[in-house]
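Repro:
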Amino acid sequence: YVADVVNSDFQDLIRDVLDSGRVLYVHLSAPTKTMRRLVENRADQETKKPKSRVYRDADHPAGRPAKASPDDRFGLSESERALCDEENTVARVYMEIFRQCRAGNVLVTVEAPANSWFWEQPAVVAELRGERADGLVSAVYHNCMRGGVTSDTVRWVGTVPGLDGLAIECPGQGDRAHCQYLHTQPEDTDGQTTTQLKYTWEVVVKVSNLVLRQLIADGKLTEAPKVEAAPLKRIRRKRPPLLVEELGDGGPRIVQE
């Protein structure tokens, strides 16, 4: 999707759609290829394993400079530098969309790993911190406490009232070795466990309910569509209370909050 967001024609299309008055809610998911906050691992760098590539650091939140020479292991190749620039553009365009949503009274949220370099981009800092932060709601949670298969820490920021209710910490502080709350993902239609999903069903249900309730309160919807979530399969001995309850043959339903 990065190729779409950095395209000026696509940006114009998004602006026109938002200006149409027909959009009720927008969610923005930050790019992660170069925005991940990784620790330098020289052994991996020497073997050039893709997962270990560090694109940014505290001195270069917008991306490390291009290689000074072919032997430069610190600098980025031309293609890597271009990828950083593209994701920087995505961050800027996202904040333009975020600002337009706020101006047009459209509910909006943005999400990224809590330690992502995305939150340090100038456009993001300008829009989500300081005076511009008035009226925004935020939440940080450990993914394992929201039905996830990882213990990553996730941050959401937006204009949806009640969004801060997502916040929850893992008793093991996100240490996978000590976490008792990790879950598998829902089964697909063939009964096979799916690969890791971007958002757990619990988070989807929680945010959907918050958005629907606010749209009803604002008079933009007359009734809330029924939202159902697939059951979560437990793989550890304990898990926190979920919004989704399994009720025998009747299937899952949303528990009253």
